[in-house]
Amino acid sequence: MENCIFCKIVAGEIPSPRLYEDEKMIVIRDIEPKAKLHYLCIPKTHFALLADMDEEKAETLKYCFRKIAEIHKELGLQDGYRVIINQGENGGQTVPHLHIHLLGGEVLGDF
Ligand code: 5GP
Ligand code: ZN
Predict the structure, then answer these.
(1) Closest Cα to atom 24, ligand 1: which residue?
(2) Ligand 1 in reach of 32 Cβ (< 6 A)
(3) Does ligand 1 lie within 6 Å of residue 84's CB atom?
(4) Is the CB–ligand 1 distance for residue 8 below 6 Å?
(5) What's the half-sphere exposure (Cβ side, CA atoms, 13 Å) at 35?
């Protein structure tokens, strides 16, 4: 997807160290962390919203969640973490490439 910052990161056109990568997803640090640890899990396939999900994308998201569960300790999230997917304008989504926020490394406040 042209002009999508996360597609550019996935493609390596914008350098961003990957804490995890496989054929379906990457995990990077959020550039403006909202917690002591703040990661973004970014599926390699471009789609903006959960509403745009077809079977294949649903499989990709399922894969991402299972992988997060598998690697969360390696990311320092062993004491718990928060998972957020912002959707659209009211949801505070600023990058229209679906991504999963992982926040932790400390006790998080209410939101
Ligand atoms: P959203 O607001 O769409 O749910 O989340 C987008 C997130 O991407 C924000 O938390 C923002 O700080 C992060 N972000 C935006 N541009 C970049 C970037 O170039 N690199 C990284 N690592 N994070 C980014
Ligand atoms: Zn994209």
Answers:
(1) 31
(2) yes
(3) no
(4) no
(5) 22
Annotation marks residue 97 as catalytic: no
Phi, psi at 93, each rounded to 5°: -75, 120
Structure tokens at 62: 């399922």
Q: Give pLDDT tens digits along the chain (111 positions).
A: 889 999 999 999 999 999 999 999 999 999 999 999 999 999 999 999 999 999 999 999 999 999 999 999 999 999 999 999 999 999 999 999 999 999 999 999 987
Domain ranges of the chain: 5-104
Q: Which ligand is nearest to the CA of 13?
A: 1
Cα separation, 98 vs 109, in Å, equals 24
Q: Which residue in 38, 72, 97, 99 is the catalytic one?
A: 99
Instruction: Specify the fold of 5-104.
Output: HIT family, subunit A (3.30.428)
Question: ∠23-28-30 over CA atoms, to 5°?
Answer: 145
Record the pTM: 0.97
